[in-house]
Amino acid sequence: MKSEPFEITVTGNYYSLKLPEHIVRPFLEKNRNRVKAKASYLGKEITFHAALQKRNGLYCMMFGKRHQKVLGIFPNDYFQLQFFEDTSKYGVEMPEELDAVFLSDYEAFQIFESFTPSKQRGLIYAISRYRTSQTRIDKSLLLCEILKEVFVEIRYC
Fold first, then answer.
1. pLDDT tens across 84-100, in order?
2. At 126, is the pLDDT very low, low, confident or very high (cuts 50, 70, 90)?
3. How many helices (H) and strands (E) would you count in the chain?
4. SS3 sequence, 27-86?
5. If you average pLDDT over residues 13-18, what whole number do you get?
6. Which of 43, 54, 69, 144 could connect to 108 by a Cys-Cys bridge, CB 3.0–4.6 Å?
7. What residue spans define the domains of the chain?
8. Yes or no: is domain 6-85 CATH 3.30.40?
């Protein structure tokens, strides 16, 4: 499932996009409020995960400054956007380092799996924001220890 590419501009608070209903509707009708998006501008292209939201009767999605900076977009610049069905398990790509640590620590993985999808995405984003692989490994190991420590405290309280 994918949309046709369409032109859009950053307006309003400069961090969100107002989306055409005819583009969003097919995804929402199939309960797909998370999508993979491809944005392109002047030969540059990025792919990212996003949530389709409805606010005040309008459809929108977040489009942060970091995406705008990578593409070189300024307010009122028009760029191309296209949506694809998000087939990832968590609604975001799992960093290889976190996945490897979870493979070696099944107890921490089980605790992670018990969380809501939004909490899982938050933890994945927290790890993936680090630039170096070694830092992502270190933070993943620390996360697993914290998960187990907190879970044990909750279980015995």
1. 999 999 989 999 999 99
2. very high
3. 6, 7
4. HHHCCCCEEEEEEEECCEEEEEEEECEEECCEEEEECCHHHHHHHCCCCCCEEEEEEEEC
5. 82
6. 144
7. 6-85, 96-155
8. no
Residues 6+ apart with CB under 8 A from 19: 8, 52, 58, 59, 60, 61
Amino acid letter for position 67: H
Q: Which helix (H) or strand (E) holds 117?
A: helix 117-128
Mean pLDDT, all residues of the chain: 92
Classify residue 105 by its DSSP letter.
Answer: -
Question: Which amino acid is residue 73, in one-letter code?
Answer: I
Residue 69 corresponds to which tokens in the numbers above? 């900076």
DSSP-based three-state secondary structure for 95: coil
Task: Please give the pLDDT value at position 81.
Answer: 98
* 108, 102 Cβ separation under 8 angstroms: yes
Q: Are 58 and 116 in contact (CB under 8 A)?
A: no
pLDDT at 121: 95
**Per-residue pLDDT averaged across 15-28, rounded?**
94
